[in-house]
Amino acid sequence: MQKNLEDRTVILIILCTLLLVFTLIFTFIPSDNQLSPSIQWKDTPNQNYIDLET
Questions:
Q1: Which residues of the chain have pLDDT under 50?
Q2: How far is CA 48 from CA 8, 14, 38, 39, 51, in A?
Q3: From the CA atom positions of the chain, what is the Rg in Å?
Q4: Where are the transmembrane segments (predicted)?
Q5: Chain centre distance of CA 40
Q6: Burial of residue 18, with CB atoms counted within 10 A of its CB: 0-12 exposed, 13-18 middle, 19 or more buried
Q7: How far apart are the C-alpha atoms of 13 and 2, rounded to whole Å?
Q8: 54 to 30, 46, 51: CA distances (angstroms)
Q9: What 3-state DSSP class applies to 42?
Q10: I want to staple 34 with a disulfide (CB 3.0 to 4.6 A). Which of 18, 30, 39, 41 is the partner?
Q11: Looking at residue 14, what is its pLDDT?
């Protein structure tokens, strides 16, 4: 007959598994810079408004 595992052992195995899963997930997620590049404006809004008045 098989010997049952202790509660501590089972909890430790579950925690290690969760840690491994989160480590793998956060290792392969692309950084924010790759997802959405910053917007670069050519002119400031104030200059556009002044150009429209003239």
A1: none
A2: 67, 59, 21, 17, 5
A3: 28
A4: 9-29
A5: 23
A6: exposed
A7: 18
A8: 46, 13, 6
A9: coil
A10: 30
A11: 98
